[in-house]
Inverse folding.
């Protein structure tokens, strides 16, 4: 009898201990800030630059927060976050093009970034209207031309490249590419549907060849004499000028760059940007990393990893970009690029831009 009473008491103590342990555990899990838990942040990114990794390592050194990198294309990562749903490990989604960031928002994969620091670091027009993503590096979609065949005086606007004098001379990639979709989306906002459609029709008329390849291929095709001008993103030229591949350097050195629409609506810009994942378990750490990446300390090195412009206005661009000079930008909020994406895709199909 005594023995069984003793056993019962021991049993009760054991159960009480287990319940207490379970409570402690669930507390740790629920706030994610428990002292004995490792601080971390998981970033789903389509960027793959060595310097990005170095910057994350510096962030870890300064803050003690580990950065886990999950690479993939933007579309793969969006699909993965959707599939993972609430169980997703993603804290941050980092990719090129405001249109894609907007798509992640539309698919309810993001949440608002609450940080005065981030809002100060990133100009309003380079952020989502609900602050679910912000731009971190900026690029311009410009005209590259061969100075032997084109006089700078002949260049003015994107629209002018749709004029008959440019027949068989214009190179630009496929309309399936999100950069072109964002370009047309910006025109739809600035000029309305009719003028935007006329522009797209005019460019199709003036194409030097059926669209093929990426932005770098358009640059090569200008040098090869297939066309005289190419519409492409600034950082491709920066990358080619600094390439280990001699042929790329050779191509880029032969081209001149022109910022279109300087007297009118400004040159089209886009961003590489970061969104806060809706189901993040490390919101504080994620926001801290966005603050770090948008801060003065790392903006310059971060942007110049891909020859892009810093978004933080207190930071000067890298030398190669400064040589190209300042330019006027389109004055629209970049959320528009996502909002008008479907209209742009439809319009490209209507005018037969492959
Ligand atoms: Fe790109």
């Amino acid at each position: 009898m005594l023995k069984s009473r003793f056993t019962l008491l021991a049993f009760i103590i054991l159960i009480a201990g287990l319940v207490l342990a379970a409570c402690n555990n669930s507390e740790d899990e629920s706030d994610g800030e428990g002292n004995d838990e490792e601080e971390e942040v998981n970033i789903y990114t389509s960027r793959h630059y060595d310097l990005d990794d170095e910057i994350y390592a510096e962030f870890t050194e300064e803050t003690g927060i580990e950065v886990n990198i999950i690479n993939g294309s933007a579309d793969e990562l969006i699909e993965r976050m959707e599939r993972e749903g609430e169980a997703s490990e993603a804290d941050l989604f980092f990719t090129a093009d405001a249109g894609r960031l907007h798509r992640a928002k539309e698919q309810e994969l993001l949440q608002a970034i609450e940080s005065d620091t981030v809002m100060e670091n990133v100009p309003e027009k380079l952020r989502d209207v609900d602050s679910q993503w912000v731009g971190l590096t900026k690029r311009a979609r410009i005209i590259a031309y061969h100075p032997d065949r084109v006089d700078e005086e002949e260049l003015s606007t994107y629209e002018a490249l749709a004029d008959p004098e440019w027949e068989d001379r214009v190179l630009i990639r496929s309309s399936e590419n999100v950069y072109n979709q964002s370009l047309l989306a910006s025109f739809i906002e600035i000029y309305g549907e009719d003028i935007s459609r006329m522009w797209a029709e005019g460019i199709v008329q003036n194409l030097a060849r059926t669209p093929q390849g990426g932005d770098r291929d358009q640059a090569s095709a200008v040098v090869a004499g297939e066309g005289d001008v190419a519409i492409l993103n600034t950082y491709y030229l920066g990358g080619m000028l600094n390439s280990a591949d001699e042929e790329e350097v050779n191509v880029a050195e032969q081209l001149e760059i022109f910022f279109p629409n300087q007297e009118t609506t400004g040159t089209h810009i886009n961003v590489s940007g970061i969104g806060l994942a809706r189901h993040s378990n490390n919101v504080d750490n994620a926001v801290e990393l966005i603050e770090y990446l948008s801060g003065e300390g790392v903006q310059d090195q971060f942007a110049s990893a891909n020859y892009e412009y810093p978004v933080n206005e207190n930071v000067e661009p890298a030398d190669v970009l400064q040589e190209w000079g300042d330019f006027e930008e389109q004055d629209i909020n970049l959320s528009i690029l996502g909002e008008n994406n479907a209209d742009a895709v439809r319009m490209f199909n209507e005018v037969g831009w492959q």
Summary: The two ends are 89 Å apart (CA to CA). Residues 22-36 have pLDDT under 50 and may be disordered.
